[in-house]
Amino acid sequence: MQNRKKNSGREGMTLIEVMLVLFILMTIASIGMFAVQDQRKKAKISFAKTQLGQIAGLLDLYESNVGHYPATEESLEALCSCPPSVDESVWVRTANWSTPPLDPWENRYNYEYPGSAGMDSFNLWSNGPDGQSGTDDDIWFSR
């Protein structure tokens, strides 16, 4: 007969230990997800601000070519083609768009002329993450 030694060491983990390890891993993963989501939201806001500045520059170029900013009714679509009041031979194309770009949340940018600062100004804004105009998360550019 063989004499078997009793193994005094542990051979496995209990269910409670496995559950505790899973809980710790899930907690770490969820903290990481919140950090990533927060950075992604900040990146989209930053991108929207940058794009608003670029659109404002195109509106200024349009104004220098035509003598005025597009009317609110013309919207940003006016930047896509030569206005009827301007001779196409002297027109300097302001944007290479077929349609104006969308904000990072896939909504149209809003445009208003004249702006809140008077006849020589315009308002340009994104509805922000919630997609609703007039809320606290709107992203504004005014000139």
Straight-line N-to-C gap: 96 Å
Going by CATH, what is the homologous superfamily of one domain? Glycoprotein, Type 4 Pilin
- Helicity level: 25-40%
Instruction: Please state the structural category.
Output: mainly alpha
CATH class of one domain: Alpha Beta
Strand content: 5-15%
Low-confidence stretches: none
CATH topology of one domain: Glycoprotein, Type 4 Pilin
Mean pLDDT score, rounded? 87
Major sheet: size, sense and barrel closure?
Answer: 3 strands, antiparallel
Overall body shape: elongated
- State the total count of DSSP E strands: 3
Structural commentary:
With 143 residues, the chain is mainly alpha-helical. The chain has a domain at 36-129: Glycoprotein, Type 4 Pilin. The chain is built from 1 helix and 3 strands, in the order αβββ. A 3-stranded antiparallel beta sheet has the order 1-2-3, with helices on one face. The longest helix is centred in the N-terminal third of the chain and has 52 residues, at 15-66.
